[in-house]
Amino acid sequence: MNVIPYYFQLRAKMTWRWIKEKGIHPLIFIPLILIGSVAALKLLTDRSEYADTLLVIGGWWMVSKSTGGKELTFLKGLFSKRTFSLILAIEVLLISLPVILSLVWMKEWLALALSVVWGMLFRYNAIQVSTSWVVPTPFSRQPFEAVEGFRRFWPAWIVLVIAMPFPYYVDNSNLGLFILFATIFLFQSFFQVIEPSYFVWFHKHTPASFIWMKMRWSIVHLSIWMVTQALLFIFLFNEVWWHALVVYAIGVIWMPLLIVAKYAIFPASLPIPEGIAVGLSMIFPPLMIVTVPYFYLRASRNLQPLLA
For residues 94 and 92, what is the distance between their CA atoms, to the nearest angstrom? Predict the structure, then answer.
């Protein structure tokens, strides 16, 4: 019996249920994603001559966000090598489908091949292997997000460092700014991982002091995470060195919003309506005058039972 169709039927049901749990009906969510993808592609191709590069990076980001090491390790032990490899390939193609269709439409065949191969390699390398070696981090012993995120995505950090000189060779500082923003977005993705409740419970803080502590450390860790890329940008583009400081300031402004939004619904993940509110606030920061106090009050009430 071919188990692959049954596996993807189960995947479809799980995805449908996950969308509904996020607070939006799939019949509304799916058309919105399609419309948003078309609009984003049109904007990208009209505004950037490096649309193919950005799409490859976007495809890698989508694959990385869907990668679960424990789950893949379980599947590898459950299926035969041939079946597992086929499932892996199909999943990468489905996850990257918007990027693949966009690159086909643009006739960027090299970027298309790179996107698929890179996605396959990243997906396969996410399989967890038992080892006694722990990746050291520059984030001291402050749990949770930066330490776990660095141990998972340190190869991506190295890629972003290596990529920084490329904008200099093509004389495009905007591409360098994009790498800085990509560095910030990757760091912010760490905060989508929900720690166990006892990671909050053992702190000797009130809800207010706990939230402020998380905000302070998130800014310190963001500074450590992006200092290498920022210094490279300043060195390579000294005429516009202050652009790096502006990007860093934007990242710092975003961090309190992400912290209070995370703990407003802790230990659940952020529902889609709240996620849209966070996204709009990041695009249009004046909205944070409303959203940050709103999420802060919810977070304080939500954390009271754990930190009372």
Answer: 5
Number of Cβ atoms within 10 Å of the Cβ of 267: 14
Instruction: Give the length of the chain.
Output: 308
Cα–Cα distance for residue pair 280/270, rounded to 1 Å:
14
pLDDT confidence bin for 129, thresholds 50/70/90 = very low
Which of the given ranges, 93-97, 105-109, 178-182, has the highest pLDDT on average?
178-182
Report the alpha-carbon distance of residue 184 to residue 222 in Å, rounded.
7
Tens of pLDDT, residues 252-282: 999 999 999 988 888 877 777 788 888 888 8
Contacts of residue 287, Cβ cutoff 8 Å, sequence gap at least 6? 277, 280, 281
Cα separations in angstroms, 174 against 111, 135, 144, 233, 279: 20, 32, 32, 11, 22
Give the DSSP H/E element, type plus range, for residue 202: none
- Per-residue tokens: 83: 């079946």
